[in-house]
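Page 47, continued from p. 46.
Same chain as before, 841 aa.
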Amino acid sequence: MSRADPPGPQAATTAAAASAADTALRHCLQDAPDGIVLLDHDGRMVFGNGKACEMLGLGGSADTAPLPELLTPEERERWLQAPPAPLLLAAQARPGRPGDLWLCAGEGCLRGMAVLRPADARMHEQAHIHLLSQALDSSDNAIFLCDDQSRIRYVNAGFSRMLGYAPEEALGKLPRELIRGPHTDVATLDRLGEEHRAGRPHRDHLLGYCKDGSPLWLSVVATPLADASGSLVNVFTDITEAKTHEVLNGKVLDALVREEPLAMTMALMCQEVERVAPDLRVVVTRSEPDGQLCTLAAPAPLMTAGTCGWEHPACMQALRRGRAVVIEDIASAPLFDSQRDALLALGLRACWSNPIRSTAGQVLGTLAFHCHRPGPPTAWHRRLAELCLHLCALALEREQARSRMHRLAFYDVLTGLPNRLMFNALSEQPLMQAEQQDTPMALLFVTLDRFKRINESQGHAAGDGLLRDLARRLHDIAGPESVVARQVADEFTLLVPGCAQQQAVALCERLLAMIAAPTVVGSMTLHASASIGVAMYPDDGRALETLLRHADLAMRRAKDEGGGRFRFFSADMNRLAQERLLLEATLRDSLRQGGLRLHYQPQVHADGRGLYGVEALLRWRHPHLGDIPPSRFVPLAEECGLMAELSHWVMEEACRQHADWRRRGLDIPRVAVNLSASAFELPSLAEQVRRLLERHQQPADTLVLEITEGVMLSAQPQVPANLHALHALGVRLSLDDFGTGYSSLSHLHRLPISEMKLDRSFISEIGHDPAAGALILSVLRIGESLGKHVVAEGVETEDQRRFLVDNGSPVLQGYLFSPALSANALEQWLGEQAYARPPRC
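Result:
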């Protein structure tokens, strides 16, 4: 049949019957005493009987179309909810008709049929009850009503969501029957029950259990009704998260702030975890550098805190894999074959171990939860683990930072040995024991010989490697009872308890032999030696400071004697040290307050042609000790950092005096100044000399700077640069003590040397040792062949003078002619010798 065809007889009959039924229904409702309306599926009014029209102000008829909008959009949305609640209509639905109307769905009525009723107190109460029921059901709290026998009479929907019980399962039961579990505090339950039966308001915290056995912490609040029925309204609030954060964050973070020891903090965390989750036993471990685990906190029956090397299977896997390991049933897990019986005996059935990671991702240790029931961790257990992992990482990272700061403050970075501060602290206990037990003890002060030369020639990497190797060997030889430390640079100290003097001798010999053995550093082999000073307790002092000072003095004595040896402290060392301190302080004052002076020793032409020049020699008269020889105070100036200042003063004074002589017409051709090796390492030396010459208007070739063989052989690049710069200025360079070394000849042709000084040790052997004469002749011939002046110093006898003159020595210097004289005495000597007259034209 096509769409245009009219309906068949059967369809027409059905439609007619429906229309007739609808008409009959409307007639029946029209005269009903209650106001009745029909609403369509969109909540719009499609019919209202006479009473409804009257109540709505429609004149008693609803035949006119369109019918008014009975509900606002907001009311319509609320009405369409199932089941519909009584609805207080807005005033615009009944214009001209004062008073409130309620729209109520009648029980058992057709869908869409509703009854209009005038507002009264009962309707307001019904509506409020309905709204209250909706509010209670939407709450996340478990709200229930108990009678005077403490049995449940009403539960909201939140009760079922929280605890998992349907209303019919809860009604008529005691609350304790539903929430009690294996770790619920029975005493708290009994106390709550007593308060409940007495009808008194009360509140408390309680560990309860859901229907599925999962634990949760509950805040319990009970309030009696005011109708004297004995009923109580009870509210359970899930405070598991808050309880966990309060207990763990509060107590553990407080322990971290107070900087409690790591093990104590971790034990506190485990204790609190087991208190809020009694079904768990917690183990915290720390990863050691060797890959083992050290237990920081654990239940006493499981293991001992502080145990290292503990092979917990799940923890070791979590450490090695870097991810969580979940063992749901220890009884059947092959991983726990070796420890299954011990864990099951403690009632532990499952284990969940997690790696503890730093903020940089490094695995610092593990956190393991052991549970009394098999299965995977619950959502709460996982949240608890996340919180604990954060606290563990914070504690372990703080401990690492504290350990790093401790090592930086108290241990040497290069060698790993204790530094000076830690050595002092570690020495207190051995010193106290030595005093109490009246036992001897040795303190050794060890320093490498010529370590600076190793650094300069082989590089700092080689020097560092040598120091690391020496530190390891010292620690091995000294033994576990000794305290070994690096003081500074290449200086080490050893405190050896129970060591008498003979044992100290043997120990020093072993140390010297060990240090002298070839040491391979990288691709090179180093040969070192050391100087050792020894101070004995109690003979050389009882305080650590005194022993250190005396051992240092003994070490310096060994070094002054050539190194590669050991020396015990003696009283004269202390006296000399005190004298040295006095000399150093006075030398500083003398240098800066004009207490030093120069003397000048003449150098004469061997052929009688007059004065060749003078050599400036430094002199110092101590106000209490008298004249101090240069061999004593010049090394002292070198050690205490005065050499640069002293060298500058000597050049300044020599140039000033020479300029004064020249202005007064004294014919002194040149003045020679002996500079230390360190002076030639100064980058400013050439510029300093240039300014001196300009200031005193002195020709450059009248200044002679004497250098030692050590300067020629220096590996410092600044030294040859200075020598060439001085030569370019016109300053003459003289090689002092020529012939005493073994490599001067190889450098003579490369450096701008103008003259050579024949060492006095050869001159003194003239007439006694034929070999000395042969050496003198060789030096003289070298000077002739290289075109350099040779100055023979230390000439004291006529035989020496005659030998030198006969063999062509051009310049002589020594006591035979004159000792070193003050400037005034030199002028008088020159007048007596007629050397100072101006040369004839």
